[in-house]
Write a structure and sequence with these properties.
By secondary structure, the protein is an alpha/beta fold. It contains 17 helices and twelve strands. Helix 2 packs antiparallel against helix 15, helix 5 runs parallel beside helix 6 and helix 9 packs across helix 10.
Length: about 475
């Protein structure tokens, strides 16, 4: 039976519930520690949820990266790992899966997405280059900067407004892209960095029309488009649901068409592809592939394993096939929406429309009394853990980091706390618990105090920074 999309279930069956298209075969017990123990753990972690031991966490919504539950077929594939140093058969299975599903001819496996970002940046960015993109992502921008480039945000203005209901808030503003190219010259723009969906905007999608028009624009200037395809499966769902002409097309067909407008892509397979480790970089240009294949040997491993075991590549190849099943994608996004609808019904400010992989709480509106320098999103993540043992993460001024030229904080308009839903891990009952905890924290918002940063690492500070209560 095909599982109807959750939002249309009422129209089709009246008062009939929907269920996940899988059953549970193995369980991992969860532990709940007392509020007093959570307070001690939070203080010991410097109020940074990344520094909490997982044994002290009840429901872990820190990230959907590598936290997925693999299927029985993926686990069976793990037993077929060919651990040859060179030419593992699992590499060829992965190569075929990427060529079939994403359409790129040349594949370089990496240990995870940031390994692919590093290789691409080193291969194509020169000192002084400018890379336009539809909102920064932390590791992507850092690799671009370390290679000598500068990132310029060219996303549409609606993406910075958490209340905007624009259906494709991840879209590129074509006027902004062209202005960048004309300002610095096409030879200083190695590529447009396109992400689908846009994580930092709240998991917001890019339309097919937008990528089609972007392709036409960049072709006029001879500029490449490289795609962060980490959550493109979810992006394909939103195109299917919202864009005219795509309702009757499969997720797999939409994904392939979107990728066909780009010159290459990188992916953290720890998200859409339903594995716990792995990534890849794939391109159409053989000369670039040759450069990447040389670089991967330096930084990751031989070009037929790229820092991965054969069993990991096999699980990834199987996960790619499972990830584009329409029933799976509808259920995955349906669970995220279920949580979002509960919070919206209770009047709790979140980013709208609800994205594909997470609920983004609008900490700026929840804590209007806290200035950005008191880290409202970090504060909200700490309060949620203290209340219930639920781990979320900050996506605001801490994640934005500092301008390498001025040393000042980047000050994003969006100050968000992310509740990220792992794939095939939690049930609807867990989402009820999460929603009730958010409401409890929201109800106590007026008496909440902010934080002061007391330790700041040089790079990607949100992972290891430490704070204390004001």
């Amino acid at each position: 039976m095909t599982i109807p999309a959750p939002q249309t279930m009422g129209q089709q069956f009246g008062r009939r519930s929907w269920a996940e298209p899988w059953k549970i075969k193995m369980v991992e017990p969860l532990r709940v520690i007392t509020r007093e123990d959570r307070a001690r753990a939070l203080a010991a972690a410097g109020y940074n949820t990344f520094l909490l031991p997982s044994d002290d966490v009840y429901i872990d919504l820190l990230t959907d990266s590598g936290t997925n539950a693999m299927s029985d077929r993926q686990w069976a594939g793990m037993m077929l790992g060919d651990e040859a140093y060179a030419g593992s058969r699992n590499f060829y299975h992965l190569e075929e899966a990427v060529q079939t599903t994403y359409g790129y001819q040349y594949l370089v496996p990496t240990h995870q997405g940031r390994g692919a970002e590093h290789l691409l940046s080193q291969a194509v960015i020169k000192q002084g280059d400018v890379i336009p993109g539809n909102m920064y992502f932390t590791t992507t921008r850092l690799h671009q900067e370390l290679a000598g480039g500068s990132f310029v945000d060219v996303i549409i203005d609606e993406a910075h407004d958490p209340t905007s209901l624009h259906p494709f808030k991840g879209n590129v503003d074509l006027g902004k892209v062209e202005a960048v190219i004309q300002r610095v010259g096409a030879d200083k723009v190695p590529y447009v960095s396109l992400a689908g969906t846009v994580n930092m905007a709240g998991g917001q999608p890019v339309s097919m029309q937008n990528v089609r028009e972007l392709r036409a624009l960049t072709d006029r200037y001879g500029v490449k488009i490289y795609l962060d395809a980490t959550r493109m499966v979810e992006n394909a769902f939103f195109i299917q649901e919202r864009e005219p002409g795509y309702a009757d097309k499969s997720i797999a067909a939409i994904l392939r068409e979107f990728c066909d407008y780009t010159d290459g892509a990188w992916i953290s397979a720890k998200k859409d592809s339903l594995v716990n480790i792995g990534g890849w970089l794939a391109v159409r240009d053989f000369d670039l592939f040759e450069e990447l294949r040389n670089l991967v040997v330096i930084y990751e491993g031989l070009h037929t394993y790229g820092g991965l075991a054969g069993r990991d590549m096999e699980a990834m190849a199987i996960g790619i096939a499972e990830s584009v099943q329409d029933e799976h994608v509808r259920a995955r996004i349906g669970q995220v929406r279920y949580l979002g609808e509960l919070l919206t019904d209770w009047g709790i400010p979140i980013v709208q429309p609800v994205g594909g992989h997470a609920i983004f709480l609008d900490a700026r509106r929840i804590y209007p009394h806290l200035p950005q320098d008191e880290f409202p999103s970090q504060t909200l993540a700490a309060e949620l853990y203290l209340d219930s043992g639920i781990r979320s993460m900050e996506r605001g001024i801490v994640s934005a980091g500092r301008d390498p030229k001025t040393g000042d904080h980047y000050r994003p308009k969006l100050e968000l706390t992310r509740l990220t839903i792992p794939r095939r891990v939690y049930t609807q009952a867990h989402m009820d618990v999460v929603a009730e905890s958010v409401k409890a924290v929201y109800d106590a918002r007026e008496t909440t105090r902010g934080l002061r940063m007391v330790y700041e690492p040089k790079y990607l500070r949100f992972f290891q920074a430490r704070f204390e209560r004001l």
